[in-house]
Design brief:
The protein is mainly alpha-helical and 550 residues long. 68% of the residues lie in helices and 5% in strands. Helix 18 runs parallel beside helix 20.
Length: 550
């Protein structure tokens, strides 16, 4: 058997896993949503028209990212699955709420609410555009372009494509059945602050473990692949690539000479047991100065022959049996020095090319370190002390990656908070009623807190992708809260509005529910965040909905 592992294998397998999961989940999510719409509408034409905003939004999102960034990450493509559950809501509102409306009535009564919901989504995801993490910036642009396009297609295209005599199954009875539930939920409004306070207490109690400080939480590499990599490295005595010594120089020869000098410092650590060993490009291709010194150290043939005669005195081996050895030494003294070009086509070339890198600013020599067994703590301070005074840099790749990830995470949290603040300001300017603003924003914020508390309480450390899920909860949830707090009517007075909210919520839960069962952590994180968050926002919005006269 040929077993292959390493960083390159992980990269290829991770990309393939994300892409295959995106295709699989898109297929499952699309099929489930289509089945739901067929069951409700009982009109194939309506289902096809209803999916047009979804397809348009997905294409617009990919095109925007490709134009803005040049390339589209596999994660961004996988994120397109989530657009199914969000963008299909717009067409559901249109078809369900306007089926029996007079011409243009839906545009006048419901479109302003949806338009405001789209604006909140833009404000929320716009915060990601300022992230230094390319993946988050791509997700932000993808979401904005996709949702805006889906909303615009619903507003300006569907009315013109809709047949004059389009009949869908009347789902008003479902809305009338929900009226009693809505009335019951509204009597539980005092429970909302209790739930919010309980969620805050859970988060405060687990404040040290809310966010994952390690990049491993986003890794799609399976445990089996990681175990194979560790096994092969142990068998080969290969470095684990976590700890590196990096040497930079202006020329290839200078880099090799410095690598040799660093190697002398590291050999003392190997002798002391601090290191199990190390690899160096100078091991496979010494510098020209070292090669020349070694060649000069080879004695002349006559001198070597006399030395052999003296060494073989009293031994059964005759000196003439070693003439081939003398010939080889003569050849070695006359051979040209070894260069990278002379290694081309050999296995040594791969070792040298992977450890000796040419960059526009010069040459870099990489020296991977082999650490002692896992039971022995690695003394990185001893390595740094041994390298003090040299131009070499000791790097803990795992530690530096986690530091970089924590920087991105802190930045994303601040940007998300800024986005939510911008949404609150937008809502305040548009709604102009403090109590209405409270009834719209409290369900969304409480749902966010409950989802975070639930994930933390069940042992999930939140990552960047959970944060994206939180923004999606805002994008989805504000639509529900706004419909439950329309300025001119109570939702309980219109069964069709209640039915449309339930159907939109089911489509959202189905779209994100498929992600929740994905073995890829980055996709699963979004699914287990948005699915429960959408349900909670709908329920909490019903609890806090205004029931008095308009």
């Amino acid at each position: 058997r040929i077993l292959v592992s390493g960083a390159a294998v992980f990269a290829v397998n991770s990309r393939a896993a994300i892409e295959s999961e995106a295709v699989r989940l898109t297929t499952l999510g699309s099929a489930a949503v289509i089945a739901l719409l067929l069951l409700i509408y009982r009109s194939f034409t309506t289902v096809v028209l209803g999916l047009l905003p979804v397809a348009s939004g997905a294409l617009a999102g990919i095109a925007a990212v490709a134009l803005g960034f040049g390339t589209v990450h596999g994660l961004t493509i996988g994120f397109g699955t989530t657009l199914i559950g969000e963008a299909v809501d717009y067409s559901i509102y249109y078809f369900v709420q306007s089926d029996e409306e007079e011409e243009g009535g839906w545009m006048k009564r419901f479109w302003p609410t949806i338009r405001l919901g789209v604006l909140t989504s833009i404000f929320g995801f716009a915060s990601l555009l300022f992230s230094g993490f390319p993946g988050l910036a791509q997700l932000g642009l993808y979401s904005i372009a996709g949702l805006v396009t889906a909303a615009m297609v619903t507003r300006f295209v569907l009315p013109h494509l809709r047949p004059a005599k389009l009949h869908i199954h009347d789902i008003a009875p479902i809305g009338r059945a929900l009226t009693g539930l809505w009335a019951w939920l509204s009597r539980l409004r005092r429970v909302v602050p209790v739930l919010g306070l309980a969620a805050i207490l859970v988060l405060v109690a687990n404040r040290e473990h809310i966010w994952s400080s390690s990049l491993s939480g986003l890794s799609p590499v399976s445990s089996a692949d990681q175990a194979l990599d560790q096994s092969l490295r142990a068998d080969l005595g290969a470095p684990n690539l976590r700890y590196l010594v990096v040497v930079k120089a202006g020329s290839r020869e200078a880099a090799l000479e410095q690598a040799e000098s660093v190697g002398e410092h590291l050999r003392g650590l190997v002798a002391d047991g601090v290191l199990a060993g190390f690899d160096s490009p100078a091991r496979f291709m010494p510098s020209a100065a070292t090669q020349q010194a070694r060649r000069n150290a080879l004695p002349e043939r006559d001198t070597l022959a006399r030395n052999l005669e003296s060494a073989l005195v009293g031994l059964p081996l005759r000196a003439d049996r070693l003439n081939a050895f003398l010939d080889d030494v003569d050849k070695a003294r006359a051979q040209p020095l070894l260069t990278p070009e002379s290694l081309r086509g050999s296995t040594l070339a791969l070792a040298v090319d992977s450890l000796l890198l040419e960059r526009p600013q010069g040459w870099t020599a990489l020296i991977p370190l082999r650490t002692p067994d896992s039971d022995t703590p690695f003394e990185s301070a001893r390595v740094e002390a041994a390298l003090r005074g040299t131009q070499a840099l000791f790097v803990d790749i795992f530690g530096e990656s986690n530091n970089l990830y924590r920087t991105y995470l802190d930045e994303a949290i601040l940007l998300s908070l800024a986005g939510i603040l911008a949404i609150v300001v937008l809502m305040g300017v548009v709604l102009r009623e403090p109590m209405r603003l409270v009834r719209v924003m409290v369900p969304v914020i409480t749902a966010e807190l409950l989802v975070m508390a639930g994930l933390v309480a069940t042992g999930h450390a939140l990552t960047l992708l959970h944060l994206v899920g939180m923004l999606l909860i805002v994008a989805v949830g504000t639509n529900y809260a706004l419909f439950f707090n329309q300025a001119d009517r109570n939702p309980g007075d219109d069964p069709r509005t209640l039915a449309s909210l339930l159907l939109a919520n089911l489509a959202t839960v189905i779209g994100f529910g498929t992600l929740a069962v994905s073995p890829v952590p980055v996709l699963q994180a979004i699914g287990i965040t948005v699915g429960p968050g959408a349900v909670l926002t709908l329920i909490l919005s019903a609890m806090l909905a205004h029931r008095g006269p308009r």
